[in-house]
Recover the amino acids of this structure.
């Protein structure tokens, strides 16, 4: 196990209300603020986040999903509100639709919005035209649906004392694959690379093998100091919003033996967080915090999530089936390009070579992937850069 030092608190930003959820996209943080709607911040400089603009939704903004330029807001009793944040200083209302329950969270994939709808379970709406959403289906669950992650090819619904449920979308139909209900209270579930990572208020973090998606086998557990209210996953670590115990980071590179790498409760109750590269974006009450985590203990407080010494672009963008990623100004040594989906999950590794020159290009064949927003990360030496791209079929 590597040394788990180097959690550096970079900045604190005070918000206009109590924060409920946070999402990161394209160097921006979007924060759900309950009765005050949504606020957006530029976080390219992690030491100095810059306020961009706000939108007051009609309900209670409890969760959100970014399908740029649209921000889809789980708006409590008001269902879902869709906002165009293409101009962050002047966000615009696009559309809305009701749900039978209480919209806590949502994902958008394959032109469908999937909502964790409280006592009403899972709610699906077709939103190919976001100005005219079309109801598809609702599935009742035994618990209280509070969080949903994944894509149409595999989604994971946290259902409180009802456990969690694994679904896929077959065209416009929802198919239930499996459930696990022998837990305490499930707050969040992520599926990554054949494993389910489960946040449970009673038992902490559990890891399940999804080799057979209809028969998930629990491999291990790791208790956290707090009550594991939210999680994010990045590069072999689970980042836990651990309630009153702040942030806990679990090393899960050995899925049979997860280890607590670090716990920090210096800023109080952490309700939700997001991770991008080595940066952690956490909300606590009416404040928003940025940390940097370096497993080796190295911490450079002057660094930025986007390093512009590397140059890269892809063409065409948006694209259908394939796109060419071009790069230059590489450092000597190994260069890598990794593809992520909009949930931060690794979906492809398309380049891993010793540099023979400072530049080049590679084609990503995305024919087997669903339409949506993806990210590619170019890493060269000590530098990396992340760029979004849109696959449209």
């Amino acid at each position: 196990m590597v040394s788990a030092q180097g959690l550096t608190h970079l900045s604190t930003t005070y918000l206009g209300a109590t924060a409920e959820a946070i999402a990161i996209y394209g160097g921006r943080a979007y924060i759900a603020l309950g009765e005050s709607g949504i606020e957006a911040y530029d976080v390219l400089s992690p030491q100095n986040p810059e306020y961009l603009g706000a939108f007051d939704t009609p309900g209670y903004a409890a969760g959100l999903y970014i399908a740029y330029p649209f921000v889809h807001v789980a708006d409590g009793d008001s269902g879902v509100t869709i906002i165009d944040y293409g101009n962050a200083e002047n966000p615009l209302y696009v559309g809305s639709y009701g749900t039978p329950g209480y919209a806590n969270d949502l994902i958008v994939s394959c032109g469908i919005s999937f909502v964790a709808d409280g006592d009403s379970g899972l709610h699906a709406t077709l939103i190919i035209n976001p100005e005219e959403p079309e109801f598809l289906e609702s599935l009742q669950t035994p618990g209280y649906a509070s969080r949903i992650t994944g894509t149409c090819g595999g989604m994971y619904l946290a259902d409180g004392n009802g456990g969690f449920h694994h679904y896929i979308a077959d065209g416009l139909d929802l198919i239930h694959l499996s459930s696990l209900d022998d837990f305490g209270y499930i707050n969040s579930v992520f599926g990554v690379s054949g494993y389910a990572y489960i946040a449970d208020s009673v038992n902490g973090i559990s890891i399940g093998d999804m080799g057979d998606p209809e028969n998930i086998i629990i491999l291990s557990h790791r208790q956290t100091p707090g009550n594991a209210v939210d999680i994010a996953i990045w590069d072999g670590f689970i980042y836990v919003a651990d309630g009153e115990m702040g942030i806990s980071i679990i090393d899960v590179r050995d899925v049979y033996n997860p280890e607590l790498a670090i716990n920090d409760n210096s800023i109080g109750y952490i309700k939700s967080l997001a991770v991008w590269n080595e940066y952690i974006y956490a909300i606590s009450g009416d404040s928003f915090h940025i940390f940097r985590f370096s497993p080796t203990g190295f911490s450079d407080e002057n660094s930025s999530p986007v390093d512009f010494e590397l140059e890269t672009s892809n063409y065409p963008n948006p694209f259908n089936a394939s796109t060419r990623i071009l790069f230059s100004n590489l450092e000597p040594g190994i260069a890598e390009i990794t593809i992520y989906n909009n949930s931060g999950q690794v979906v492809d590794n398309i380049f891993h070579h010793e540099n023979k020159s400072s530049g080049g290009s590679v084609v990503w064949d995305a024919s087997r992937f669903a339409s949506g927003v993806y990210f590619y990360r170019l890493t060269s030496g000590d530098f990396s850069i992340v760029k979004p791209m849109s696959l449209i079929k």
In short: Confidence is low (pLDDT under 50) at residues 297-309. The first strand starts at residue 7 and ends at 14. The chain has no helices and 35 strands. The chain has two domains: 7-293, 311-391.
